[in-house]
Fold this protein.
Amino acid sequence: MAYLEFDHVSFVDGPIKVLHDISLTIDKGEFISIVGPSGSGKSTFLKLCSDLISHTEGTIMFDGKKIEDYEPCEYRGRVGYCFQEAYLFGETVEDNIKFPYIIKTKDIDMERVTKLFDLFHMSLEYLHKKNTALSGGEKQRICLIRSLLFEPEVLLVDEVTSALDQENTLLVESVLEHLHKQHGMTILMVTHNEEQSRRHVNRRITIESGHVAKWEEF
Ligand SMILES: Nc1ncnc2c1ncn2[C@@H]1O[C@H](COP(=O)(O)OP(=O)(O)OP(=O)(O)O)[C@@H](O)[C@H]1O
């Protein structure tokens, strides 16, 4: 079933055509990696999917409706993202964990929080740590947990393991595989790691010079 659909989509900023004429369909439950040279437009593609930036031509549909017709809050709740920069809010880890519940105006679900901390092999003692006291890898994992607390249907991840060592990279990959296999989550993952781009995924898209150059099925 077409879930996220790009029809002749471009993103142009002044004279610069960052992405051009992208047409593709992503089905519910797919795990797709996105590769390509530096500066080819991979992050911009994910930003369009996350509605962080708006396309300038063509149509993007999500679950049968144009992306711009969604209330931003509803869209952000259904399509979560975590980018390389691992931006944390407030002062402490707890501020970040509370954030999704403040947005959803719900009480914090400690059972779910505990499950996610367990999944990422982190203890709940981290809740009281200051953001500035975290390593790059820890920040990245807290960002992922914060995204997942929104309970998204789609997760967009952009080079989330590039700051992690091999052990933590494999841990994050195994969490993504678990979310995909056990919860049917649709995942789009930008990576520069050739092996990672083939592990667990069912399709790989190569973006070159702002357009889709190749599709591969695994
Ligand atoms: N809003 C914008 N206006 C102008 N140029 C932009 C804009 N956003 C991105 N670019 C340019 O478009 C190109 C693609 O950027 P993007 O970050 O999507 O590439 P990428 O494939 O993710 O690169 P990397 O692998 O290095 O992270 C880059 O040259 C970037 O400088």
